Amino acid sequence: MSKTRQDKIDKTTKSSSPGVSRQNAMWLSVVMLVIGFIAGTIFGVMKAPPVPGGSSPGPQAVSNDPPAEMFAALETEAAQNPENPDIWARLGHAYFDASQFQKAIDAYEKSLAIAPNNPNVLTDLGVMYRRNKQPEKAVEMFDRAIAVDPEHEVSRMNKGIVLMHDLNDTPAALKAWEELLEINPLATFGDGRTLDEIIQHYREGHEES
Description:
By secondary structure, this protein is mainly α. It is built from nine helices and no strands.
């Protein structure tokens, strides 16, 4: 899965319509790219998607890691504006893109200490906890994102992935994904398989292949 962002979201918006359009479903399909499988079984968790009117795009093609100058500039800006949650979030995103998990976690935590109800930052923090081999903390962050925005689809998808493949809790994972289907019946993984198809596969007692 591509990890680079050019900008990031500083707020989230919720749909004003209870229905889910096919266009929205297609967008979720693009955003919810699967990193791949480890030993043929492990899904990759996803970054939070962009929100109309927000300041950040979704995943972009990765050419290389953020340059050192970017880190220096963001660190200087954060030091000069320590009460600005958006700056800490941008620093977290840069560390996210560079796979510096603990530094990303620290920056996201500082952002959330100031603005605790940003579901996108909570989701990205959860991804970093998962990659830092702290799956329980990852689920905790996804749950916090869901509590803030019950229609936050990526956090629900990620929660199911971590429960299924990191914590080996198939019933809880299927429950998380079924709750996502109630929000978006057309939720789809990046390889074209629908979430409904994956749930049915496990309900029938099959292992992921």
